[in-house]
């Protein structure tokens, strides 16, 4: 085969050989034949050190990988190391012959040179020392089995998490007493700070005070013209606060058993009431989709906490930030800054209406309950970080937490469930027993609270009774 000028075409092997020779001549003139490289010991030492530094690590397997592979990989790695060393020696011989250096004796330390071969002849560190430092003496046998350190670390992490998730053992709870006296659904209750008595409010527009020890009725208070939905007893003043669907907030003097102040301003029925533990303010919320902050003494409306798009069904007050927490039928929980009256965070993880909130007395968290899905959630204050989820079948109407880490939840179907608060693991589930003569549909639990010791639980329901539970 010929070209246009009649010259025969050269073979592929001949063309490749010519190209290689030209490339070699170009680089030999510019790099390898640089004047002074062969004669200058400093330049020789520089190039030798650079080669050792850049290519020395790829001669052998890293010690970490060799320790992971164990004894089975040792002969193979040694064979690879021998082959790599022979190949590198051949490259060095070729390089020295092209430079015209030739094999020379090992330079002395006095002339400051470093041999290329000496740089590559360095021995690796002891494998046993590195193996003992990385995986310890007790795990050396596992490394021989070929199990990686990463998988063992993951297994240890899972075992540790499993141990931490073990719930704290709690005693079982048993029904101790059933108290009758209301003529309507029991919608709210509060325990006196000295744990001597407790108060309940119901659909019969009455507020009743009961003796804690005997369960006997001590006093009945009238004044509301609609269902009483919120109660709070002050630990700093001899006052009790009540709120109802009649849009009124009342302050009762417990020494005279009379109303001393009334707070006006809500545009619709009030569904929740919370009393601040250290400030002279009371917070109420209801169907007008906002929470209102009242000054106890002056009856002035300090803030209107607006932002919810539905009925605000629950409200909490605490000393630390956030000082006000609200739960609404729009399926959100809002955290409020009481000083500025602004929302600091909105929690949207619930899928349905939030009807219950409860503060943990033993840690800086709170719980919320809604109507569906994983309907009980635990949050960390002050930012509102979700910690875990719990489930109770039905619409959760009430939550309560005691200092021992027991979370109680009651639903509209009468399902009662006790959880370990820290892990969210349920340890007891029972069904509410309706009062004889009531319908089965009246088994719903609307309100609950623990006494000041945390050993007795009070619940109010649709069968118009108050039930007292205690630890077995």
From TrEMBL:
Q: Give the keywords, sorted.
A: mRNA processing, mRNA splicing, Nucleus, Repeat, Spliceosome, WD repeat
Task: Answer whether the UniProt record assigns the keyword Signal to this protein.
Answer: no
Kindly list the biological process annotations in GO that this record carries.
mRNA splicing, via spliceosome
Placement of WD repeats on the sequence: 179-220, 221-262, 263-304, 305-346
Name of one Pfam family that matches: WD40
The organism sits in which domain of life? Answer: Eukaryota
The subcellular location is: Nucleus
- Record's GO cellular component terms: catalytic step 2 spliceosome; precatalytic spliceosome; Prp19 complex
- Give the quaternary structure: Associated with the spliceosome.
Protein family: Belongs to the WD repeat PRL1/PRL2 family.
Give the function comment from the record. Involved in pre-mRNA splicing and required for cell cycle progression at G2/M.
Protein name stated in the entry: Pre-mRNA-splicing factor PRP46
Q: Which organism is it from?
A: Malassezia vespertilionis
Q: Which lineage is the organism of this entry classified under, starting from the top rank?
A: Eukaryota, Fungi, Dikarya, Basidiomycota, Ustilaginomycotina
Encoding gene (name): PRP46
């Amino acid at each position: 085969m010929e070209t246009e000028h009649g010259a025969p075409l050269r073979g592929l092997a001949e063309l490749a050989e010519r190209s290689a020779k030209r490339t070699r001549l170009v680089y030999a003139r510019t790099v390898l034949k640089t004047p002074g490289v062969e004669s200058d010991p400093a330049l020789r030492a520089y190039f030798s050190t650079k080669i050792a530094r850049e290519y020395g690590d790829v001669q052998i397997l890293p010690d970490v990988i060799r320790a992971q592979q164990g004894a089975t990989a040792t002969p193979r790695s040694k064979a690879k190391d021998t082959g790599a060393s022979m190949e590198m020696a051949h490259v060095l011989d070729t390089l020295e012959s092209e430079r015209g250096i030739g094999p020379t004796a090992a330079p002395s330390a006095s002339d400051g040179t470093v041999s290329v071969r000496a740089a590559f002849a360095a021995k690796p560190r002891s494998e046993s020392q590195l193996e003992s430092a990385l995986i310890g003496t007790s795990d050396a046998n596992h490394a021989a089995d070929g199990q990686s350190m990463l998988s063992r670390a993951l297994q240890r992490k899972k075992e540790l998490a499993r141990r931490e998730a073990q719930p704290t053992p709690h005693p079982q709870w048993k029904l101790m007493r059933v108290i009758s006296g209301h003529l309507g659904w029991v919608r709210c209750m509060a325990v006196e700070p000295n744990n001597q008595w407790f108060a309940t409010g119901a659909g019969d527009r009455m507020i009743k005070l009961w003796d804690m020890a005997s369960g006997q009725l001590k006093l009945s208070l009238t004044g509301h013209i609609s269902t009483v939905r919120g109660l709070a007893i002050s630990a700093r003043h001899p006052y009790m606060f009540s709120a109802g669907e009649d849009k009124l907030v009342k302050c009762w003097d417990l020494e005279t058993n009379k109303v001393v102040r009334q707070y006006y301003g809500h545009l619709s029925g009030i569904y929740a009431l919370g009393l601040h533990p250290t400030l002279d303010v009371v917070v109420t919320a209801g169907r007008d989709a906002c929470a209102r902050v009242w000054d106890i003494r002056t009856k002035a409306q300090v803030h209107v906490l607006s932002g919810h798009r539905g009925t605000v069904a629950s409200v909490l007050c605490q000393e630390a930030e956030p000082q006000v927490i609200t739960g609404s039928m729009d399926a959100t929980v809002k955290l409020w800054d009481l000083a500025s009256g602004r929302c600091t965070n909105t929690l949207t993880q619930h899928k349905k209406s939030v009807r219950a909130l409860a503060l943990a007395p033993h840690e800086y968290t709170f719980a919320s309950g809604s109507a569906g899905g994983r309907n009980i959630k635990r949050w960390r204050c002050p930012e509102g970080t979700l910690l875990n989820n719990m489930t109770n079948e039905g619409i959760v109407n009430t939550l309560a937490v005691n200092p021992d880490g027991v979370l109680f939840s009651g639903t509209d179907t009468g399902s009662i469930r006790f959880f370990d608060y820290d892990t969210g693991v349920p340890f007891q589930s029972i069904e509410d027993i309706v009062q004889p003569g009531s319908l089965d549909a009246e088994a719903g639990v609307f309100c609950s609270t623990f006494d000041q010791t945390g050993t007795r639980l009070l619940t109010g329901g649709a069968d118009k009774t108050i039930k007292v539970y205690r630890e077995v």
